[in-house]
């Protein structure tokens, strides 16, 4: 069996080269701004012992709307209607990334909905930051990690050939409860592109291999980068 595998090694390499060339063809949808974080330097954050992690929120679009601005980052996104199931997929990824870290406390969706119903009955004009701060206070948290999904377009095709690659856009912010300050934020707005079109994404292909990702795999890669960056900044 070992000899059979060895005899195939050259063939496999050739196939890999052909696949790399195929995935490099410029026939894909254009990419966007990519992943950015704020602050852009390596500044450490204040000590936070209790960070409430909310389920991923999703942007609600009007019929025909194709652009939307994130009110926390002022970033403008190309948007598409996202489903509760897609937001749930993002939530599972996010919760999985922080699970087990004692600084992060996962907040179930049912608790969020219950709080919103009560709070909005009292103040229907509450701003997003005011709402997040109020929820953080209710939870006894130092800060709230809040994410919003703007686009979740699934790959059409297979890992090795696509008609349309996965495309994701979201923001995630760390908001201090005491004063509403945004301590940290990350924006991801990208359509998977071939390596030849963006050599800066070589870390993505090193990690996942030369293949086209599903939207959930693409989101998992991006969110893992975000949480890794956030952890580095927390004392």
Give a verbal description of the structure.
With 235 residues, the protein is an alpha/beta fold. The protein is built from seven helices and eleven strands. The protein has helices at residues 2-7, 9-23, 84-98, 109-122, 128-139, 202-208, 215-233; strands at residues 34-38, 51-53, 57-58, 67-69, 76-78, 104-106, 143-153, 156-158, 161-164, 167-176, 182-191. Strand 8 (156-158) and strand 9 form a beta hairpin. The protein is globular, with a radius of gyration of 20 Å. 31% of the residues are buried. The model is unreliable at 1-33 (pLDDT under 50).
Attribute tags:
7 helices; 235 residues; alpha/beta; seven-stranded mixed sheet
Let me know the average pLDDT.
Answer: 81
Rg value: 20 Å
First-last Cα distance: 51 Å
Provide the low-confidence segments as ranges. 1-33
| Coarse morphology | globular
Number of helices: 7
Order of helices and strands: HHEEEEEHEHHEEEEEHH
SS-derived structural category: alpha/beta
The percent of residues in helical segments reads: 25-40%
What's the count of strands? 11
| Largest sheet features | 7 strands, mixed
**Strand coverage percent:** 15-25%
């Amino acid at each position: 069996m070992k000899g059979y595998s060895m005899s195939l090694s050259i063939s496999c390499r050739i196939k890999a080269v052909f696949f790399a060339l195929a995935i490099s063809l410029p026939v894909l949808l254009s990419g966007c701004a990519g992943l950015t974080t704020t602050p852009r330097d390596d500044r450490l954050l204040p000590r936070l012992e209790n960070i409430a992690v909310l389920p991923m929120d999703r942007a609600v679009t009007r019929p025909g709307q194709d652009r939307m601005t994130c009110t926390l980052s002022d970033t403008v996104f190309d948007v598409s209607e996202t489903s509760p199931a897609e937001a749930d997929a993002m939530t599972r990824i996010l919760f999985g990334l922080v699970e087990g870290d004692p600084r992060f406390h996962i907040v179930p969706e049912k608790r969020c909905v219950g709080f919103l119903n009560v709070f909005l009955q009292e103040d229907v004009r509450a701003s997003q930051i005011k709402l997040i701060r109020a929820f953080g206070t209710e939870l006894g948290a130092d800060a709230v990690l809040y994410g919003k999904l703007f686009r979740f377009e699934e790959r059409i095709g297979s890992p090795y050939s696509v008609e349309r690659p996965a495309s994701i856009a979201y923001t995630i912010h760390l908001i201090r409860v005491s004063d509403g300050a945004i301590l940290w934020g990350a924006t991801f707005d990208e359509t998977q592109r071939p390596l030849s079109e963006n050599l800066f994404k070589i870390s993505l292909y090193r990690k996942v291999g030369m293949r086209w990702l599903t939207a959930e795999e693409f989101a998992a890669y991006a969110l893992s980068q975000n949480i890794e960056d956030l952890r580095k900044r927390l004392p």
